[in-house]
Specification:
This protein is an alpha/beta fold and about 500 residues long. Helix content is about 45%, strand content about 15%. It contains 25 helices and 15 strands. The strands form 2 sheets. It has an 8-stranded parallel beta sheet, sandwiched between helices. A 7-stranded parallel beta sheet has the order 11-12-10-13-14-9-15, with helices on both faces. Strand 6 (about 125-130), helix 7 (about 140-145) and strand 7 (about 150-155) form a beta-alpha-beta unit. Helix 15 runs antiparallel to helix 17 and helix 20 (about 435-445) packs across helix 23 (about 475-485).
Length: about 500
């Protein structure tokens, strides 16, 4: 375990002031800053530090935002001429050099400094911002440890398990507020994420920002919720967001968390924030209560009006406990090692190629380097990912994950709808029309109770749900048959449209 040091932050106090109050002029080297919540000025403290710095940000939008606020910094990313970096480094100035880059730009800056005979490892302080659960890019890991002075900021204490942290005598700088900090959040567990979200946004009068991990889930929300189809703007990549005027908000705004965990959204008002977890579909979306949610909230510099997390729960979801994950890795590692040994020993080309394919395509390959040596941080990430999945097998576990952070005041409600996310998933699959008819008939029958309620509200709801079910002319034909001739007519026809049409034609022919 790494040594831990506490930095207490008072209400309304900037991080740089907290550092000075506790004896630090600037951020110390060889430290991991644990940031429980954003917006206290950790990056600002490095921008103001009396030393030359390379600051690695997760995306271009963050860099552009910092450049607008700080005149003497230089941002370098795709599209910016390398000559600007060279000119900036060589030009005499009365201010410290502050270079803001993306992870991918690091290696270009490295080459430029090499050409200019600048030893960046000795002359620059390396600051990695917003390391979510790993180094920004794999190759940057070794360069990071070559710097004489370096540190990084993270919301997830996973990365500290890298063995090089202990070898290089890193320590943890843990931020602890001296005041009560609790963000209210309404956790809604539901059997139908789309219906619950639709109800929620229809009740909100101020602009809403909806976050989810999966682009597939985002597209599904837009396709199935009329309000989002009509009034939402969608951001799937940071460039699209930064090129728009973020202060001119639409009523509904959908963003992928992958791109926006580090983007500052400076609105003139606090919006509603909704976080979506959807466990069903090709790309399940698991939001980590211990890291993702507070980072999302922190993007809004003027605060938020409300926070809602909508999620379905799957008690049958497969996941590994930490013990099971380690056993899986141990057993899979033995097989991988035997394949690696066979590959090295075989003199036959075909056998080597086949073993090479098996090694590269195996699920274990992600945990080892080219020589088959385990990469500890990837093992830690795997166990963490499985732990997050486990939260979604039971409502109580998801609630406890929030409570354990000590950052949230959690209220919980449960919503049950006639149709579930599993029903939606079944209908979305490529079925024969007969198979689809079988499912649809079941849903039509389920809605009969609602159809027979004669209030206008019930009838509006019924029509809405029927419209959601009917996706093509054949579906519509089946529905009309159900209303006019009943369920038995459809079953006796074997759910076949051509048989039903033949039977209807017989009925229409006069005796």
């Amino acid at each position: 375990m790494l040594q831990e040091m506490i930095i207490s932050v008072r209400k309304g106090e900037w991080f740089s002031d907290a550092l000075k109050r506790q004896g630090y002029q600037d951020l110390p080297s060889n430290c991991i800053v644990h940031k429980p919540f954003p917006g206290i000025g950790i990056t600002y403290s490095e921008l103001m530090a009396d030393r030359d710095s390379i600051i690695v940000e997760p995306n271009v939008a963050v860099i552009k935002g910092k450049m607008q606020m700080h005149k003497n910094v230089l941002g370098f990313y795709k599209g910016v001429s390398p000559h600007l970096i060279a000119d900036y480094l060589l030009k005499p100035s009365n201010f410290r050099k502050k270079i803001l880059i993306t992870p991918d730009s690091f290696f270009m800056v490295k080459e430029i400094m090499k050409e200019l005979n600048i030893n960046m490892y000795e002359e620059f302080f390396l600051f990695l911002d917003e390391c979510e659960k790993d180094f920004p890019v794999e190759k940057l890991r070794m360069d990071f440890f070559r710097f004489r002075h370096r540190m990084f900021v993270t919301v997830a204490p996973i990365i500290e398990n890298d063995p090089l942290m202990k070898e290089n005598r890193f320590f943890i700088l843990k931020i602890r507020p001296e005041y009560e900090y609790k963000q209210k959040i309404n956790l809604i567990t539901t059997n139908n994420v789309i219906e619950t979200l639709s109800t929620q946004i229809s009740q909100m009068k101020e602009p809403v920002y909806i976050f989810c991990h999966s682009v597939e889930t985002m597209q599904l929300l837009i396709a199935d919720i009329p309000l989002l189809r009509e009034k939402a703007r969608v951001f799937q990549q940071q460039e699209a967001f930064e090129e728009s005027n973020a202060t001119q908000s639409n009523m509904y705004n959908l963003l992928t968390t992958h791109y926006y965990l580090a983007v500052d959204i400076d609105l003139p008002f606090p919006p509603h924030v909704i976080v979506i977890s959807d466990l069903f579909g090709n790309n399940p979306s698991f939001i980590d209560p211990k890291t993702d949610v507070m980072q999302i909230i922190g993007r809004f510099r003027k605060g938020v009006k409300s926070v809602v997390h909508i999620s379905n729960i799957d008690s049958e979801l497969h996941y590994y406990t930490p013990k099971q994950a380690r056993n899986w890795l141990k057993n899979a590692g033995k097989i991988y090692a035997s394949w690696l040994k066979k590959k090295g020993n075989t003199p036959y080309d075909g056998a080597r190629e086949l073993l090479e394919e098996a090694l590269n395509q195996s699920s274990f390959a992600q945990f080892v380097d080219e020589e088959g040596i385990l990469i500890p941080i990837r093992i830690t990430k795997f166990i963490d990912k499985e732990t997050v999945k486990s939260f979604y097998t039971h409502t109580k576990l998801l609630q406890e994950a929030y409570i354990s952070t000590k950052l949230f005041d959690v209220s919980h409600s449960r919503e049950v709808h006639i149709f579930s996310d599993k029903d939606r998933l079944l209908l979305s699959r490529k079925l024969t029309q007969e198979g689809r008819n079988r499912l649809l008939l079941t849903h039509f029958e389920q809605l009969e109770v609602l159809r027979k309620v004669r209030s206008s509200k019930a009838q509006t709801r019924y029509r809405y749900l029927i419209e959601r079910l009917i996706g093509n002319p054949s579906d519509n034909f089946l529905y009309n048959c159900f209303i006019k001739y009943g369920s038995n007519f459809i079953r006796n026809s074997g759910y076949k449209e051509d048989v039903m049409r033949q039977e209807i034609n017989k009925m229409l022919i006069p005796n």
